[in-house]
Amino acid sequence: MRRKILICLTLPALIVMTSANSIGQQPVNKSNNGVDTDAPYLAVLGIAQDAGYPQAGCGRACCARAWADPKQRRLVVCMAIVDPVSHQRWLLECTPDFREQLHRLNQIAPSRHRIGLDGIFLTHAHIGHYAGLIHLGREVMGADRVPVYAMPRMKHFLETSGPWSQLVSAENIAIRELTNGRVVRLNERLSVTPLLVPHRDEYSETVGFRIQGPTKSALFLPDIDKWDRWDTKIENVISDVDVAWLDGTFFADGELPGRDISKIPHPFIAESINRFGDLTDGERNKVRFLHFNHTNPVLDPNSRAAESIREAGHHLAAEGERFGL
């Protein structure tokens, strides 16, 4: 089947999208509609909730098509920051799909080194966001002091809880403590700033990340409780960046029969659409939802739920899409 490539112009950002099956096949350093080929960029390596899609043990209709067709499967939410000039690469999250995601990253931005990660930024201690660290240990890659950026409670959790503490003691990873709102300078062109958000913080704090490049900025916020529980207006944060990848775990209430969804609060996509309805076209166009639970109907891009997102002027994140910074 011929590969499909879609160029999606946002206002003012440019996102280059490839189909999930063609990730890594499009050369990075080629001129593409005037995009600076030396510009750093973000690459989406996964869009699903912590358990991936399809989810273990799910035989219901929501996962049936993904079990039947491997092309429908989606990896756990993850992004890479790539600087093609310095040949540096960082991950936002270290997921259970680390093996596949590192392979995909090596396809789109080959490293000169065996592991080739200049750092990993963790949002919080829910399994889909840090469990991939185990691949850096002696049983797999035997990494040497890969920088892992974490908030204070997350740092303490990794240092004191096995098997993660072995990664620290064996110096497979070197944890660098983050501070809410304090900029982390990656190099002369790139920086990352953690933003503390409310979430179910059993073992750690939860943060999103604001990523700043030479000319553009982005927000990565895969997990948060309801928008009104944050002491910062999400609309103000959207206004401050060029693109915003936001928590889209559930589309609407009722997706988890037999479970009290109030105990796992996220902003329903339907709620976000309603809340953002008064934003300008340009502001709404910045929003790209991700972190989809296996029950979320938007995993079918032809669903009515997915269409309603497009009608509202928003977007669904796609594995393989890139955003120039």
Write down how many β-strands occur, each being a DSSP E stretch of 2 or more residues.
16
Distance between the termini: 31 Å
List low-pLDDT spans.
Answer: 1-13, 18-34
Which percent band covers the strand fraction? 15-25%
Average pLDDT over all residues:
89
How many helical elements?
A: 9
CATH homology-level superfamily: Ribonuclease Z/Hydroxyacylglutathione hydrolase-like
Strand adjacency order, main sheet: 1-2-16-3-4-5-6-7-8
Q: Could you spell the SSE succession in H and E letters? A: EEEHEEHEHEHHEEEEEHEHHEHEE
Biggest β-sheet strands, sense, barrel: 9 strands, mixed
How many domain units? Answer: 1
CATH architecture: 4-Layer Sandwich
Helix content: 10-25%
What is the CATH fold-level name?
Metallo-beta-lactamase, Chain A
What is the C-alpha radius of gyration, as a whole number of Å?
A: 19 Å
Query: What is the global morphology?
Result: globular
Helices and strands: which structural class? alpha/beta
Identify the CATH class.
Alpha Beta
Task: Tell me about this structure.
This protein has 325 residues and is of the alpha/beta class. The protein has a single domain (7-18, 37-324), classed as 4-Layer Sandwich (Metallo-beta-lactamase, Chain A), CATH 3.60.15.10. The protein is built from nine helices and 16 strands. A nine-stranded mixed beta sheet has the order 1-2-16-3-4-5-6-7-8. It has a seven-stranded mixed beta sheet with strand order 9-10-11-12-13-14-15, covered by helices on one side. The model is unreliable at 1-13 and 18-34 (pLDDT under 50).
